[in-house]
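TL;DR need C-alpha coordinates for one chain.
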Amino acid sequence: MKLEPECVGCLFQQMVKAFKTVKPDVSNEIIISAQQSLMSYLLKIDINKVSAPIVGKFLYDLVAKTLGIKDPYFQQKKKYNELALKQYDRLTKIINNSKDPLFEAIAAAAIGNTIDFASQHKIDLLNDFKSFKPENFKINDYDRFKNSLEILNKDDKKLLMLGDNAGEIVFDKLLIEVIHKIYPKIEIIYAVRSAPIINDATIQDAEFINLTKIVKVIEASPIPGIDLASSTEEFLKYFREEGGIILSKGQGNFETLYDIDLSHKDVFFLLKVKCVLLEKVFNVKIGDFIFKQRTRD
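>> reply
TL;DR here they are.
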Protein backbone atom coordinates (compact mmCIF):
# COMPACT_ATOMS: atom_id res chain seq x y z
CA MET A 1 0.00 0.00 0.00
CA LYS A 2 1.65 3.22 -1.14
CA LEU A 3 1.87 6.32 1.01
CA GLU A 4 -1.39 8.25 1.27
CA PRO A 5 -1.73 11.91 2.35
CA GLU A 6 -2.87 10.76 5.78
CA CYS A 7 0.32 8.73 6.20
CA VAL A 8 2.70 11.68 5.87
CA GLY A 9 1.25 13.66 8.75
CA CYS A 10 1.00 10.50 10.84
CA LEU A 11 4.69 9.74 10.33
CA PHE A 12 5.72 13.12 11.70
CA GLN A 13 3.40 12.62 14.68
CA GLN A 14 4.99 9.23 15.26
CA MET A 15 8.43 10.83 15.34
CA VAL A 16 7.42 13.33 18.02
CA LYS A 17 5.71 10.59 20.01
CA ALA A 18 8.78 8.35 19.75
CA PHE A 19 11.15 11.01 21.05
CA LYS A 20 8.82 11.99 23.90
CA THR A 21 8.17 8.37 24.86
CA VAL A 22 11.81 7.35 24.99
CA LYS A 23 13.28 10.64 26.28
CA PRO A 24 10.58 12.97 27.66
CA ASP A 25 13.03 15.82 28.21
CA VAL A 26 14.36 15.79 24.65
CA SER A 27 14.82 19.30 23.24
CA ASN A 28 12.67 20.76 20.51
CA GLU A 29 15.82 21.44 18.50
CA ILE A 30 16.66 17.73 18.37
CA ILE A 31 13.14 16.81 17.27
CA ILE A 32 13.03 19.48 14.57
CA SER A 33 16.43 18.44 13.25
CA ALA A 34 15.19 14.86 12.96
CA GLN A 35 12.02 16.06 11.26
CA GLN A 36 14.13 17.91 8.71
CA SER A 37 16.01 14.69 7.98
CA LEU A 38 12.69 12.90 7.50
CA MET A 39 11.53 15.66 5.12
CA SER A 40 14.71 15.28 3.07
CA TYR A 41 14.23 11.51 2.92
CA LEU A 42 10.63 11.87 1.71
CA LEU A 43 11.74 14.30 -1.00
CA LYS A 44 14.34 11.85 -2.31
CA ILE A 45 12.26 8.68 -2.50
CA ASP A 46 9.52 7.77 -4.97
CA ILE A 47 6.49 8.04 -2.69
CA ASN A 48 4.40 6.13 -5.23
CA LYS A 49 6.48 3.02 -4.67
CA VAL A 50 6.89 2.83 -0.88
CA SER A 51 4.57 2.08 2.01
CA ALA A 52 4.43 3.77 5.41
CA PRO A 53 6.27 0.90 7.18
CA ILE A 54 9.23 1.32 4.81
CA VAL A 55 9.42 5.00 5.75
CA GLY A 56 8.87 3.93 9.34
CA LYS A 57 12.10 1.95 9.20
CA PHE A 58 14.01 5.13 8.31
CA LEU A 59 12.10 7.14 10.92
CA TYR A 60 12.72 4.86 13.88
CA ASP A 61 16.32 4.14 12.90
CA LEU A 62 16.81 7.90 12.88
CA VAL A 63 15.27 8.23 16.35
CA ALA A 64 17.50 5.45 17.66
CA LYS A 65 20.61 6.97 16.09
CA THR A 66 19.78 10.47 17.36
CA LEU A 67 19.28 9.22 20.92
CA GLY A 68 22.22 6.82 20.75
CA ILE A 69 20.04 3.87 21.78
CA LYS A 70 20.01 0.69 19.67
CA ASP A 71 16.61 -0.50 20.92
CA PRO A 72 14.74 2.57 22.27
CA TYR A 73 11.60 0.61 23.12
CA PHE A 74 13.33 -2.21 24.97
CA GLN A 75 11.84 -1.36 28.37
CA GLN A 76 8.36 -0.78 26.97
CA LYS A 77 8.47 -4.14 25.17
CA LYS A 78 9.54 -5.89 28.36
CA LYS A 79 6.74 -4.17 30.26
CA TYR A 80 4.03 -5.30 27.85
CA ASN A 81 5.40 -8.82 27.55
CA GLU A 82 5.19 -9.08 31.33
CA LEU A 83 1.73 -7.49 31.44
CA ALA A 84 0.43 -9.92 28.83
CA LEU A 85 2.02 -12.90 30.59
CA LYS A 86 0.07 -11.97 33.73
CA GLN A 87 -3.12 -12.54 31.74
CA TYR A 88 -1.87 -15.78 30.18
CA ASP A 89 -3.18 -18.35 32.68
CA ARG A 90 -6.54 -16.63 33.09
CA LEU A 91 -7.09 -16.36 29.36
CA THR A 92 -5.96 -19.94 28.78
CA LYS A 93 -8.59 -21.15 31.23
CA ILE A 94 -11.32 -19.00 29.68
CA ILE A 95 -10.44 -20.15 26.16
CA ASN A 96 -10.23 -23.85 27.02
CA ASN A 97 -13.57 -23.77 28.86
CA SER A 98 -15.42 -21.90 26.11
CA LYS A 99 -17.81 -23.41 23.58
CA ASP A 100 -15.50 -22.45 20.72
CA PRO A 101 -11.86 -22.26 21.90
CA LEU A 102 -10.56 -21.41 18.44
CA PHE A 103 -12.77 -18.35 18.09
CA GLU A 104 -11.95 -17.20 21.62
CA ALA A 105 -8.23 -17.58 20.92
CA ILE A 106 -8.56 -15.54 17.73
CA ALA A 107 -10.41 -12.86 19.69
CA ALA A 108 -7.59 -12.78 22.25
CA ALA A 109 -5.00 -12.49 19.48
CA ALA A 110 -6.98 -9.61 17.98
CA ILE A 111 -7.19 -7.83 21.33
CA GLY A 112 -3.45 -8.25 21.68
CA ASN A 113 -3.03 -6.08 18.58
CA THR A 114 -4.08 -3.14 20.77
CA ILE A 115 -0.44 -2.92 21.89
CA ASP A 116 1.13 -0.52 19.38
CA PHE A 117 3.15 2.55 20.31
CA ALA A 118 3.08 3.89 16.74
CA SER A 119 -0.70 4.01 16.39
CA GLN A 120 -3.23 6.76 16.96
CA HIS A 121 -5.22 4.36 19.13
CA LYS A 122 -4.88 4.73 22.89
CA ILE A 123 -3.60 1.60 24.63
CA ASP A 124 -6.13 0.30 27.16
CA LEU A 125 -5.44 -3.42 27.19
CA LEU A 126 -7.38 -4.49 30.26
CA ASN A 127 -10.47 -2.53 29.28
CA ASP A 128 -10.35 -4.09 25.82
CA PHE A 129 -10.41 -7.51 27.46
CA LYS A 130 -13.45 -6.67 29.55
CA SER A 131 -15.46 -4.99 26.80
CA PHE A 132 -14.76 -7.32 23.87
CA LYS A 133 -17.80 -8.85 22.19
CA PRO A 134 -18.07 -10.99 19.01
CA GLU A 135 -19.69 -8.10 17.16
CA ASN A 136 -16.46 -6.11 17.61
CA PHE A 137 -15.32 -7.97 14.49
CA LYS A 138 -16.81 -5.61 11.92
CA ILE A 139 -15.47 -7.94 9.23
CA ASN A 140 -15.42 -11.56 10.33
CA ASP A 141 -14.21 -14.38 8.09
CA TYR A 142 -13.81 -16.82 10.96
CA ASP A 143 -15.78 -19.61 9.26
CA ARG A 144 -13.55 -19.36 6.19
CA PHE A 145 -10.43 -19.49 8.36
CA LYS A 146 -11.71 -22.52 10.22
CA ASN A 147 -12.46 -24.27 6.93
CA SER A 148 -8.95 -23.46 5.64
CA LEU A 149 -7.44 -24.93 8.81
CA GLU A 150 -9.43 -28.13 8.39
CA ILE A 151 -8.14 -28.48 4.82
CA LEU A 152 -4.62 -27.64 5.94
CA ASN A 153 -4.76 -30.33 8.60
CA LYS A 154 -5.17 -32.90 5.80
CA ASP A 155 -2.83 -31.43 3.18
CA ASP A 156 0.52 -31.41 4.99
CA LYS A 157 0.92 -27.68 4.33
CA LYS A 158 2.08 -24.95 6.70
CA LEU A 159 0.51 -22.04 8.54
CA LEU A 160 2.84 -19.03 8.38
CA MET A 161 1.89 -16.57 11.11
CA LEU A 162 3.27 -13.04 10.79
CA GLY A 163 3.74 -11.52 14.23
CA ASP A 164 3.46 -7.86 15.07
CA ASN A 165 4.10 -6.36 18.50
CA ALA A 166 5.73 -7.38 21.76
CA GLY A 167 3.09 -8.21 24.37
CA GLU A 168 0.73 -9.13 21.55
CA ILE A 169 3.01 -12.09 20.87
CA VAL A 170 1.78 -13.67 24.14
CA PHE A 171 -1.78 -13.80 22.79
CA ASP A 172 -0.49 -15.21 19.52
CA LYS A 173 1.08 -17.97 21.60
CA LEU A 174 -2.35 -18.76 23.05
CA LEU A 175 -3.79 -19.02 19.55
CA ILE A 176 -0.95 -21.27 18.40
CA GLU A 177 -1.52 -23.61 21.35
CA VAL A 178 -5.23 -23.88 20.52
CA ILE A 179 -4.53 -24.59 16.85
CA HIS A 180 -1.99 -27.23 17.83
CA LYS A 181 -4.57 -28.88 20.05
CA ILE A 182 -7.41 -28.90 17.52
CA TYR A 183 -5.33 -29.46 14.37
CA PRO A 184 -2.26 -31.44 15.46
CA LYS A 185 -1.05 -32.11 11.91
CA ILE A 186 -0.61 -28.44 11.04
CA GLU A 187 2.96 -27.16 11.16
CA ILE A 188 3.05 -23.53 12.31
CA ILE A 189 5.88 -21.13 11.49
CA TYR A 190 5.92 -17.83 13.40
CA ALA A 191 7.75 -14.84 11.91
CA VAL A 192 9.14 -11.92 13.92
CA ARG A 193 11.17 -8.83 12.95
CA SER A 194 14.83 -9.39 12.15
CA ALA A 195 15.94 -6.27 14.06
CA PRO A 196 14.54 -3.99 16.78
CA ILE A 197 11.98 -1.58 15.33
CA ILE A 198 9.48 0.34 17.50
CA ASN A 199 7.88 -2.21 19.86
CA ASP A 200 7.61 -4.95 17.24
CA ALA A 201 8.40 -8.47 18.44
CA THR A 202 11.86 -9.90 17.79
CA ILE A 203 13.37 -13.30 18.42
CA GLN A 204 14.32 -12.11 21.91
CA ASP A 205 10.65 -11.49 22.73
CA ALA A 206 9.74 -14.94 21.41
CA GLU A 207 12.40 -16.48 23.64
CA PHE A 208 11.30 -14.42 26.65
CA ILE A 209 7.73 -15.78 26.51
CA ASN A 210 8.92 -19.33 25.64
CA LEU A 211 7.23 -19.25 22.24
CA THR A 212 10.37 -20.79 20.73
CA LYS A 213 9.76 -23.90 22.83
CA ILE A 214 6.44 -24.74 21.16
CA VAL A 215 6.83 -23.54 17.56
CA LYS A 216 9.46 -22.72 14.96
CA VAL A 217 10.18 -18.97 15.12
CA ILE A 218 11.97 -17.28 12.22
CA GLU A 219 13.07 -13.74 11.44
CA ALA A 220 11.45 -11.85 8.54
CA SER A 221 12.21 -8.18 7.83
CA PRO A 222 13.85 -5.34 9.84
CA ILE A 223 10.88 -3.02 9.20
CA PRO A 224 7.48 -2.72 10.93
CA GLY A 225 5.95 -4.89 8.23
CA ILE A 226 7.08 -7.29 5.51
CA ASP A 227 9.70 -6.14 3.01
CA LEU A 228 10.68 -8.96 0.68
CA ALA A 229 13.81 -7.13 -0.48
CA SER A 230 15.28 -7.16 3.04
CA SER A 231 13.73 -10.41 4.30
CA THR A 232 15.82 -13.37 5.36
CA GLU A 233 16.22 -16.35 3.04
CA GLU A 234 14.55 -18.57 5.61
CA PHE A 235 11.46 -16.36 5.66
CA LEU A 236 11.30 -16.14 1.88
CA LYS A 237 11.38 -19.93 1.65
CA TYR A 238 8.23 -20.30 3.72
CA PHE A 239 6.58 -17.19 2.29
CA ARG A 240 6.98 -18.34 -1.32
CA GLU A 241 6.09 -21.97 -0.69
CA GLU A 242 3.02 -23.01 -2.63
CA GLY A 243 -0.12 -23.69 -0.62
CA GLY A 244 -0.84 -23.25 3.04
CA ILE A 245 -2.10 -20.26 5.00
CA ILE A 246 -0.70 -16.88 5.95
CA LEU A 247 -2.20 -15.34 9.07
CA SER A 248 -1.04 -11.72 9.12
CA LYS A 249 -1.25 -9.78 12.38
CA GLY A 250 -1.45 -6.01 12.57
CA GLN A 251 -1.54 -2.95 10.36
CA GLY A 252 2.11 -2.84 9.27
CA ASN A 253 1.97 -6.34 7.84
CA PHE A 254 -1.31 -5.54 6.10
CA GLU A 255 0.03 -2.35 4.52
CA THR A 256 3.16 -4.00 3.16
CA LEU A 257 1.35 -7.10 1.85
CA TYR A 258 -1.45 -5.08 0.26
CA ASP A 259 0.13 -4.86 -3.21
CA ILE A 260 1.96 -8.20 -3.22
CA ASP A 261 0.71 -11.17 -5.25
CA LEU A 262 -0.36 -13.74 -2.67
CA SER A 263 -2.49 -15.93 -4.92
CA HIS A 264 -0.39 -18.99 -4.00
CA LYS A 265 -1.75 -19.07 -0.43
CA ASP A 266 -4.87 -18.49 1.64
CA VAL A 267 -4.29 -15.18 3.39
CA PHE A 268 -6.10 -13.81 6.44
CA PHE A 269 -5.61 -10.42 8.09
CA LEU A 270 -6.26 -10.06 11.82
CA LEU A 271 -5.91 -6.55 13.17
CA LYS A 272 -7.35 -3.63 15.04
CA VAL A 273 -8.07 -0.49 13.01
CA LYS A 274 -5.86 2.26 14.41
CA CYS A 275 -5.81 5.05 11.84
CA VAL A 276 -8.01 7.01 9.45
CA LEU A 277 -6.46 5.34 6.39
CA LEU A 278 -7.67 1.88 7.40
CA GLU A 279 -11.03 3.37 8.30
CA LYS A 280 -11.34 4.18 4.60
CA VAL A 281 -9.90 0.88 3.36
CA PHE A 282 -12.28 -1.28 5.41
CA ASN A 283 -15.15 1.22 5.79
CA VAL A 284 -15.08 0.88 9.57
CA LYS A 285 -14.11 3.01 12.58
CA ILE A 286 -10.90 3.37 14.57
CA GLY A 287 -11.01 0.75 17.31
CA ASP A 288 -12.90 -1.84 15.26
CA PHE A 289 -11.49 -5.34 14.81
CA ILE A 290 -10.99 -6.95 11.41
CA PHE A 291 -10.63 -10.64 10.55
CA LYS A 292 -10.64 -10.70 6.77
CA GLN A 293 -9.67 -13.23 4.14
CA ARG A 294 -7.88 -11.82 1.13
CA THR A 295 -9.55 -12.98 -2.04
CA ARG A 296 -7.26 -14.76 -4.47
CA ASP A 297 -6.38 -12.56 -7.46
